[in-house]
Protein: 3-dehydroquinate dehydratase
Organism: Falsiroseomonas tokyonensis
Amino acid sequence: MPRTIHVLNGPNLNRLGKREPEIYGRTTLAEVEALCRAAAGADSLVFRQTNYEGQLVDWIHEATDAEAAGIVINPAGLTFTSIPVLDALKMFKGPIVELHISNIHRREAIYHRSLVSTVATAVIAGLGAAGYATAVQALQGLLDAA
């Protein structure tokens, strides 16, 4: 039976391909979405991006209420600052894969403490845009093992 996976993206990820390509690469968000859809195979995929914290919280609530199978989330800058995103993720019952395009632990100290990691089932960082497909596949593996 196909499952629904939510891939949720936070602020500034709509600028992928243009924003600091030396850190985030040249792959666009549309290309990232295509990678995720290919990786999802028969599973249904909801792919979203917002620059607004409250919108991201609402989408986590939607995934929770719809009993989505799992969430892949790149909260971007909200990773390190957002208690509301953290609290919303605490309500989600399925696996959560936190994703970062860059290796946040090799960057400035402000990027080293992820609030989301405290509730994430797994964390993927530093694989570039290809990390999204890896995250979707890892989530599927977690669901298959459950």
Remarks:
- The radius of gyration is 14 Å.
- DSSP finds five helices and five strands in the chain.
